[in-house]
Amino acid sequence: MRIALLEDDPDQSELVRLWLEEAEHNVVVFARGGEFLKGIRRESFDLYLLDWMLPDISGLDVLRKLRSDMRDATPVMLATARKEERDIVLALEAGADDYLVKPVRRRELGARVDAICRRAGTAVNESEAIDADPYTVDLRHKTLLLRGEEIPLTHREFELALFLFRHAGQAVSRSHILESIWDIDNADLTTRTVDTHISRLRKKMQLNADNCWKLSAIYQHGYRLEHIDAAHAQAS
Hey, what domains does the chain have and what are their CATH numbers? Predict the structure, then answer.
């Protein structure tokens, strides 16, 4: 999972980043609320982990901007030393999905992040299938079916299709895709790699109005896979 961590204490942010990366998550650290809000407009994430007390804007105000102004439904966990019931209620009413009281404990953090993964549908269960009519993503056999017929995909193409269906309806940045599907540290990989694979996948999957799904490019950002209702598909 790709996580945006907002924490102004460098020692705390480094420790939490280390724990999360050892749990095989990708972490981008922000030290200021304003910097965070600018960053998430350029990039996409699976989870926001926010400190409450910050030098410029509080984590609670950041949360309110996410939910009200930006209409961003990405899961949010607040991590703070504030542990009064009224603070927890305030955060949850503002749209937080979870609340972690500092000092952050490694096992509790991991368990809560995993729980959010499960609720958000980003956790991988190899025995399940994703039904995205008329497509079926079979995780056990790592195959993608269109009306029951298997679409011949490479391993990388299947992983890309799975990623897009898991984030259906969301705008995902090219760098988010690179981190999730490729080794982001490989200097030979560029956003052009993503564009080429997206183009090939769109053709193989026949993503069009007839199949009620479309994969759109978002200028200077990335892509969005979204379902088209039957009436809209016929009209287009």
Answer: 2-120 (3.40.50.2300), 129-235 (1.10.10.10)
